[in-house]
C-alpha cells in the first residue's frame, strides 16, 4: 500500500486533495471537525475565474484553474459546473478593455450583445467584458462529489472529529491526536481553512492566516433572470437552475446598517432596479463567511519548515484554485515533484527569521 496521508479539513480544498491523493494510491483519511463542506465552502460565491489585477504572483495557478475543473468534470460525472461565462462592467472596465493582458478569455462586447446575453437588464452599459470560459458551481455539492470520488478510491472520512494535537518524534510529525485516538500518518495535510492558524499553533508555529469576512446572500426568484454571472459596481450575482439568486458583497463592519440582513435588503433593491421582471426580493439567507487569507494575500501551499511531515494548503480563492492545487499538491507529496507555480506560496516565507519550534500546544480545534 502507499503512504498514509491524513487530510485535516473537508471543505472543497481538502476534498480535492483527498480525491487526488487517493487517485495516486495513497491511504487517505480525511478528518473534519464538523460536517463535510460546513466551513467557508458553504458560504462561497464559487466563481471559477482567472481574473486578477496585475501583478499576480499566482497567475499560472489561476490560468490553469478552469482546465483542471473541466478535467474533474470528466472524471466525476456527479460534479456539476455551470459554464455560463461572466459579464463584467462598471468601474474599471474601461481600463480593463485597454489592457490586453488583463485576462486571455476576456472579450469586449457592445450593448447589443450584452442584451443577447442578459435580456432582462434594464440599463445595459455601452460595453462590457465577457469571459465565456468562466463558470460557477455549487461548492457544497462539488465538495460532496469530490469526497465521494475519494471514498470510491478507498479514502476514509471522519466527520465530527476534532484535532486535539499532534504526535511528534524527533521533529517529525507522525500522528494526529483526536478524541477517539491517534491517527498514524506519513504526511499530514492541513486544509482546514480559517483553522490553519490554530492547527499550526499546536506545532509552535502559527501561520499568519487570518479570517477575512465577506457577505453571502441567497434570494428566491423565478428562473431565467440571470444567464451569466454578472459583476458590476452594483452587484455580483448569478442564478442557479432552480431560480435562486446568489450574491457576494463586501463586509463593511458591525454597525446595524451593515448587518448582513441590511446589506441583503439594499442589494435586493439594487437587483430589482437592474433587472426587468423583479419587483421585490426577500433574502432566504444572509450571513458572513470567513475566508482564510494570509497577511500577504497569497495562498500558503507547501511543507511547513518548522515541523517535518506537515503540508499546508490554505488559500483564497479556495473554490477557484481547488482543482489545480489538489493535483499539484498531490504530486508534490507523493511524487516529490516540486512545481514552480507553487513557489510564491511556500510557508517558508513566514519563517525566514524565526527559530523552529516543534512543541505541540494543548489547543483543540
Explain this structure.
It contains eight helices and 20 strands. The protein is of the alpha+beta class and 365 residues long. It folds into two domains: 4-65 and 139-208 and 295-350, FAD/NAD(P)-binding domain (3-Layer(bba) Sandwich); 86-132 and 212-291, D-Amino Acid Oxidase, Chain A, domain 2, CATH 3.30.9. Helix 1 (12-23) packs parallel to helix 8 (318-335). The radius of gyration is 21 Å and the shape is elongated. It starts with a strand and ends in a 30-residue tail after the last helix. The model is unreliable at 98-103 and 354-365 (pLDDT under 50).
Brief summary of the model shown:
With 365 residues, this protein is an alpha+beta fold.
Please give the structural blueprint:
Layout: E1 4-8, H1 12-23, E2 27-31, E3 47-48, H2 59-75, E4 81-82, E5 86-88, H3 93-98, E6 106-110, H4 111-117, E7 127-131, E8 135-137, H5 139-152, E9 156-158, E10 163-169, E11 172-178, E12 181-184, E13 187-190, H6 196-202, E14 209-219, E15 229-231, E16 236-239, E17 245-250, H7 260-274, E18 283-294, E19 300-303, E20 310-314, H8 318-335
Parallel strand pairs: 1-2, 1-13, 2-9, 5-15, 13-20
Antiparallel strand pairs: 3-8, 4-8, 5-7, 6-7, 10-11, 11-12, 14-17, 14-18, 15-16, 16-17, 19-20
Amino acid at each position: 500500500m502507499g503512504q498514509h496521508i491524513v487530510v485535516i479539513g473537508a471543505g472543497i480544498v481538502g476534498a480535492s486533495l483527498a480525491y487526488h491523493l487517493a487517485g495516486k494510491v495513497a491511504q487517505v483519511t480525511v478528518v473534519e471537525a464538523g460536517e463535510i463542506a460546513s466551513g467557508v465552502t458553504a458560504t462561497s460565491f464559487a466563481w471559477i475565474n482567472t481574473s486578477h489585477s496585475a501583478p499576480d504572483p499566482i497567475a499560472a495557478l489561476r490560468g490553469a484553474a478552469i482546465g483542471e475543473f473541466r478535467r474533474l468534470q470528466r472524471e466525476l460525472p456527479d460534479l456539476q459546473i455551470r459554464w455560463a461565462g461572466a459579464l463584467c462592467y462598471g468601474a474599471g472596465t474601461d481600463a480593463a478593455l485597454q489592457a490586453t493582458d488583463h485576462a486571455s478569455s476576456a472579450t469586449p462586447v457592445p450593448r447589443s450583445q450584452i442584451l443577447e446575453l442578459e435580456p432582462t437588464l434594464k440599463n445595459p452599459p455601452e460595453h462590457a467584458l465577457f469571459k465565456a470560459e468562466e463558470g460557477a458551481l455549487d461548492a457544497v455539492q462539488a465538495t460532496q462529489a469530490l469526497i465521494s470520488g475519494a471514498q470510491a478510491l478507498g479514502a476514509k472520512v471522519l466527520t465530527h472529529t476534532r484535532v486535539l494535537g499532534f504526535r511528534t518524534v524527533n521533529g517529525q510529525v507522525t500522528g494526529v491526536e483526536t478524541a477517539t485516538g491517534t491517527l498514524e500518518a506519513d504526511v499530514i495535510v492541513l486544509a482546514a481553512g480559517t483553522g490553519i492558524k490554530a492547527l499550526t499553533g499546536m506545532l509552535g508555529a502559527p501561520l499568519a492566516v487570518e479570517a477575512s469576512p465577506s457577505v453571502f446572500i441567497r434570494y428566491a426568484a423565478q428562473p431565467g433572470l440571470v444567464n451569466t454571472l454578472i459583476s458590476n459596481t452594483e452587484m455580483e450575482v448569478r442564478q442557479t437552475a432552480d431560480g435562486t439568486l446568489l450574491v457576494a458583497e463586501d463586509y463593511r463592519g458591525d454597525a446595524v446598517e451593515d448587518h448582513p440582513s441590511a446589506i441583503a435588503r439594499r442589494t435586493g433593491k439594487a437587483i430589482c432596479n437592474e433587472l426587468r421582471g423583479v419587483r421585490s426580493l426577500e433574502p432566504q439567507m444572509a450571513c458572513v463567511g470567513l475566508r482564510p487569507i494570509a497577511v500577504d494575500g497569497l495562498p500558503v501551499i507547501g511543507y511547513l519548515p518548522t515541523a517535518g511531515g506537515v503540508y499546508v494548503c490554505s488559500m483564497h480563492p479556495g473554490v477557484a484554485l481547488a482543482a489545480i492545487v489538489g493535483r499539484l499538491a498531490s504530486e508534490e507529496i507523493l511524487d516529490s515533484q516540486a512545481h514552480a507555480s507553487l513557489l510564491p506560496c511556500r510557508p517558508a516565507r513566514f519563517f525566514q527569521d524565526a527559530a523552529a519550534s516543534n512543541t505541540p500546544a494543548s489547543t483543540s480545534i
